[in-house]
Amino acid sequence: TFPTPPRAGRPVTFAMSRAANPNKPKKAQQESEAAIAAKKQQVERERIRRLIITLGDDNKKVISQIRGLAGALEDDIELHGDLMSQTILDCASSLPLKSGIFAAWLTKMAEKNSKWVGEVVTKVLGELRVSIRSG
Q: Which residues of the chain are modeled with pLDDT < 50?
């Protein structure tokens, strides 16, 4: 079929179909992929926070939970180290009865991530100093 002739002053335009240019991604597809990636990252961040917060909730399995969580999160330090350290700080201030459990977990994490644990300990000490000074 041929395009209809132009009407009074309108040029004839040809649009290339998606089938003719399959390498050109759809804008909506790119945006939805970005949204999916952001959603996955948010789900991953919430999973990590939940794992840290619930560490030690089952008193009968604390040691295995510490070992398991250290093994599960040791590779996430690079991507989520800041989130993990902030979660530990929040937990230490909000859940003081579990501070020994978090300290044991940090000790286990120090076996493979000593630099990160050192940074967390420095942040904890800084927060403690601020809290003591402010009363």
A: none
